[in-house]
Amino acid sequence: MAVTLADVAVRAGVSAATVSRVLNGNYPVAGATRNRVLRAVEELEYVVNGPASALAAATSDLVGVLVNDIADPFFGIMAGAVQSEIGEPTAERGGPKLAVVCNTGGSPERELTFLTLLQRQRAAAVVLTGGALEDDAHRVALTGRLGRLESAGARVVLCGRPPLADTDFPAVTFDNREGARRITEHLLTLGHRRLGYLAGPQARTTTRHRLEGHRAALAAAGLAGDAARLTVRGDYGRSAGYAGAVELLAREPELTAIVAANDTVALGACAALRDRGVRIPEDVSVTGFDDLPFAVDATPALTTVRLPLHEAGVRAGKLALGREEPPADGVVTCGGELMVRDSTAPPRDA
Amino acid sequence: MAVTLADVAVRAGVSAATVSRVLNGNYPVAGATRNRVLRAVEELEYVVNGPASALAAATSDLVGVLVNDIADPFFGIMAGAVQSEIGEPTAERGGPKLAVVCNTGGSPERELTFLTLLQRQRAAAVVLTGGALEDDAHRVALTGRLGRLESAGARVVLCGRPPLADTDFPAVTFDNREGARRITEHLLTLGHRRLGYLAGPQARTTTRHRLEGHRAALAAAGLAGDAARLTVRGDYGRSAGYAGAVELLAREPELTAIVAANDTVALGACAALRDRGVRIPEDVSVTGFDDLPFAVDATPALTTVRLPLHEAGVRAGKLALGREEPPADGVVTCGGELMVRDSTAPPRDA
DNA sequence: CCCGGGACGGTAAGCGCTTTCTACTGGGGG
DNA sequence: CCCCCAGTAGAAAGCGCTTACCGTCCCGGG
C-alpha cells in the first residue's frame, strides 16, 4: 500500500539501512549512493513513517504547548512564537518539530490529562504557558507528571509563569509584580488616590503577582488601607471586567481610577463605564495589562503594560529544544514596559 | 527503563494481548481480568507508547490544523474550536485526539511542507483553515498533497475556505460574498455614495469573495463605475489598513465611507482617520468584517459582519473525525450576521 | 450425555524504522 | 608486497504495540 523505506531501498538498489542513513544524515554515505537514494525517494514520493521512526529511535518531533485558551491572543502570540521557533530545523538531530497545542481552559485536570497525552506521544518537549494554579495538591500532581515526562526524555519549559517549586525546569517569566507596581505608580503620580482593582481569578500566580505589585505601589503611597475594599475578583474575561467595574463603582462612587488585571478586563470595565455615562479618562482612568494588539485601538487607547509575549515564546522554544542554555538559576525574566496612552489622565479634582 | 505493556502484563498475570485489549476496549475481557489489568496499569503508572501503537495500528491520534497565524484570533478561535471538538473521546476507536497547529504565515510552500510533515506523522485528519491561495500551480500541488494524505487514510476538511476544485473534501465555508454585499448595502441604505474599499491580499479566495460582494452591492446601486479607483489592496494587517485609508483619502477626499476587508484592517483605517482629525462616523463611516471579540471595544464600536468562527471550527472538527456526515455536496455554508454598531452613520450631506 | 458454540485468553507475526555489529574495499606505510 | 585502517554498505535484531488465529472452558440444546 504505502511506500516504505524498503521500497525505496529496492528502487535505489541499496539496503534499508543505507536509505535510513541518507535520510537522517548521521552516518557517512558516498555521494553517488546518496544521490541514487534521494532520486528514489523523489520518484516514489516517499514520506517517512513518523511513528515508526519515533518508535525505533525513541524520539519524536512533537512539542506540546499548553495554553489556557488559544483563542486569546495572549496565548496565541506565545504559541505562535514557540511554533515558529521549533519549526526551524536544527543542525544536529533535528528536522522541524510540530507544535501540539492543548487548550486547558484553565482546568488543572485537563492540564494533567494533556500532559499524559503528550507523554504518550513521547513529546520531545513540553512548554507550559500562562499563570500557574496555586493549589498544593495540584502542584504536587503537576510536579509528578512533569518529572515523569522529563525522565521519559522530554524537556519541560515554563513560559509566562514562575518557576515551579522543588523543580529546576527552566522558566521564562514576566515580571508581573513590577509591571503592576509601575502602572499603579503611574496613576498615583497623576494624582489618583481612590483606585479600584479588578483582579483575576483566585489562586493564580499571575493574579497574585499583579495584585501584589498594585498593593505595593499603594502601600508606598500610604494608601494600603482601602485596598481590600476596592478589590474585586473575576476571571480574566471581558464580562468580569464589566461586572467588576459596576461593583467597584457601587462600593466607591468617588473612584477616579480602575486598574484591571489585564487588557480584556479593562475593556470590559471601559464598556461598563461608558454605559453609565462615565467618561474615560476625564471621570475615571482605566489601565490594562499585557498590551495585546487590540489595546491601542480600544475606546480610548488603553494605558497598559506591554509584555514581550513573542520574545518569551521564542525563548521558551529555544529552551525547549536545548538551543539555548538556561541561566544558572533557570529563570529568564522578561520585564514589562509601561505604555501610557489615552485611558489615563489626572483625576478631575487634582 | 520505561514501563511497557509487557511489564503491565506480567504484573497483572496476563498476556500482553489482554492488556492491549483492556486498554483499547475493543474486545471482550472478563471483568475480573480487566480490573487486575487496570490496577497494574495504575500501580506501574503505565503510559501507552503512542508511536508504537500508531505503528502497529496504522493510526494516530493527531489532527493537523493549518492556520495562517495562530496569534490572530480569527484563526485562534477556529483552532480552539477544532481542538475542543477533537479533544472529546469518541465512542468507538477514539481516545481524545491532539491538535497539531501549523502556522503557515500565508505561505504556500509552508502549507505544503506542513502537510508533508503531517502525513509523516500519519495524522488522522487535517483541517485547513483560512482563505485559499488562488494560484493554479499551488492548487495543483495542494490537491496532490491532500490526495496523498487522504489515500494514506487521513480525513481532509476545509474550514473557512471554499471547496477545492476537482476534489470532494468536505468544507465548512463562510458566505463572504453575501456578508460583504450586505454590509455595503447597509452603507448604501444610509445614503453613502462614495465608498472606498480596503481589500485583502491578491489571489486569496476570501479577498476575492468579499470584494465581489462589495462590488455587487455597488453595482446594484448603479455605483460600479468608481469601484476600481476606490479599491486599495494590502495584507490583512492593521498597518495595511492605516496606509490604505490614507491612500483612499488621497484618491478621493470626498469619501464618506470605508469598507474594510476585515476588522483588523478597519481598525488600522480608523487609526489613520483619527490621526487626520477625521471623525468616525460623522465624517466617514468605517466597517469591518469577522466581528472578532475586540471589534465591539474599538474606537468607535465597529459595524461589521459576524462570522460564526467557533461553530465553524466545531463542525470542521466533527467532520474531521467522521462524527458528522457532510451534506451531499460536501459544503456546509455558514452565513454572517450584520452587526450594526457605532462606526457607521448617514453621511453628513445626506 | 454429547456436541456445538460463545466467551475469553494466549501465541506469535508483523507494523516500518534505527542501529549495532559485521563485511568488504582500496590504498599507504612497514 | 602484505597488513591494517578508513570509508562504506549490509544483515539482522529489536523498538512496543495490535491483531489475526487458535486453543480452552463451560454452557445449553438435542
From TrEMBL, chains A, B:
Query: What Gene Ontology molecular-function terms does this entry list?
Result: DNA-binding transcription factor activity; transcription cis-regulatory region binding
Q: What is this protein called?
A: LacI family transcriptional regulator
Report keywords, A-Z: DNA-binding, Transcription, Transcription regulation
| Disulfide bond keyword on record | no
- Kindly give the Pfam families that the UniProt entry links to this protein: LacI, Peripla_BP_3
The UniProt record lists the HTH lacI-type domain at 3-57
InterPro entries assigned to the protein according to its UniProt record, in alphabetical order: HTH_LacI (IPR000843), LacI/GalR-like_sensor (IPR046335), Lambda_DNA-bd_dom_sf (IPR010982), Peripla_BP_I (IPR028082)
In terms of superkingdom, the source organism counts as: Bacteria
